[in-house]
Write a structure and sequence with these properties.
The protein has about 130 residues and is α+β, with helices and mostly antiparallel strands. It has one domain. It contains four helices and six strands, in the order αβββαββαβα. Strand 4 and strand 5 form a beta hairpin. The longest helix has 13 residues.
């Protein structure tokens, strides 16, 4: 899984809260939005605990350029943990990752109640474009 680029990797929710006091967005985001791959840091819940998600949100096309894929790749959520640091990669069937896509992704992750470690694919590409 890709690690954060251009924004710090954070594990402590209180540390993130302190950084976000000066951010009107409620999350940290790498420069260069819109893009095909964006790094975002935001808080959420996982297994009943408040965590910091160090996330990479990317288009399926960006993923396909760097990985062997099937003819009909699916969107995915990939969650991993390294000590106290939580990493999240989300592959979406969109042309570009913009602020609205980032905000919808954060809402989706915060509302999804059955998040678990590992890669979870959903929705056929041809049905989500």
């Amino acid at each position: 899984m890709n690690k954060q680029k251009s924004i710090p990797t954070i594990s402590n929710p209180d540390e993130l809260d302190a950084l976000l006091q000066e951010q009107p967005l409620g999350y940290l985001v790498s420069e260069g939005v819109p893009a095909e791959k964006v790094y975002v840091t935001f808080s959420g819940n996982f297994d009943g605990s408040r965590v910091v998600w160090n996330a990479c949100v990317r288009t399926i096309n960006d993923f396909a350029r760097h990985h062997e894929i099937t003819d009909d790749p699916r969107q995915y959520i990939d969650i991993s943990r390294d000590g106290d640091v939580y990493y999240l990669e989300v592959g979406l069937n969109v042309a570009i990752i913009d602020k609205a896509t980032i905000q919808r992704t954060i809402i989706m992750i915060r509302n999804y109640k059955r998040l678990s470690l590992g890669r979870h694919e959903y929705g056929a590409r041809s049905k989500t474009l």
